Automatic annotation (TrEMBL):
Residues 1-27 are annotated as: Disordered. It comes from Knoellia subterranea KCTC 19937. It comes from the Bacteria. The lineage of its organism: Bacteria, Bacillati, Actinomycetota, Actinomycetes, Micrococcales. InterPro entries: DNA_methylase_N6_adenine_CS, RNA_MeTrfase_RsmD, SAM-dependent_MTases_sf. GO terms for biological process: rRNA methylation. GO terms for molecular function: methyltransferase activity; nucleic acid binding. The keyword Ribonucleoprotein does not apply. This is Methyltransferase. Keywords: Methyltransferase, Transferase.
């Protein structure tokens, strides 16, 4: 069972897309991630984007904990429908885009303070690198914005483009979280 850990919707269950290969971030990893974000006061009033949203667990956790604007991007229509249902059932406010990450990032930039990138493990490093470059190049990221990339421990560290500075790495079993901050070029 996947659930919201804390905040206004804390303890409530999240539905996950059935048999679609979605890999929701485990409660344990989300709890550690959001404790780290809370320690740096990165959530209250934050403008958040969750790319490859799956069930919406990361973005909806942020909404539950005080993010002011949450944008979830998921290309699978069934999964996007599940996210919309989760938003409604939990009484949270979030916008869901049912489109590819590339298409969403090619649209009008909406400045963000915090971006989660949790792609399928089979997404290639080149595609991930392109996503990161687009975030920086199209000015999606506010100054000092935080980008958190979740991957398998077997994945290489993301190729951080100019404008994103690697900050720290956290490992939780099979999962690795890479943190980077938007810096002036």
């Amino acid at each position: 069972m996947t659930r919201i850990i804390a905040g206004t919707a804390g303890g409530r269950e999240l539905r996950t897309p059935p048999g679609r290969g979605t890999r929701p971030t485990s409660d344990r990893v989300r709890e550690a991630l959001f404790s780290s974000l809370a320690a740096r006061d990165a959530l209250s009033g934050a403008r958040v984007m969750d790319l490859y949203a799956g069930s919406g667990a990361l973005g909806l956790e942020a909404a539950s904990r005080g993010a002011s604007d949450v944008l979830l991007v998921e290309s699978d229509r069934v999964a996007a429908g599940v996210i919309r249902d989760n938003v409604k059932r939990l009484g949270l406010t979030a916008q869901v885009l049912s489109m590819t990450v590339s298409s969403a990032l090619a649209g009008p930039a909406q400045t963000r303070d915090l971006v989660f990138i949790d792609p399928p493990y089979d997404l290639g490093e080149e595609a991930l690198g392109h996503n990161l470059e687009t975030l920086v190049g199209r000015e999606w990221l506010a100054d000092r914005a935080l980008v958190v990339v979740e991957r398998s421990k077997r994945s290489a560290e993301p190729a951080w483009p100019a404008g994103l500075e690697a900050e720290k790495v956290k490992k939780y079993g099979e999962t690795v979280l890479w943190f980077a901050e938007r810096v002036s070029d």
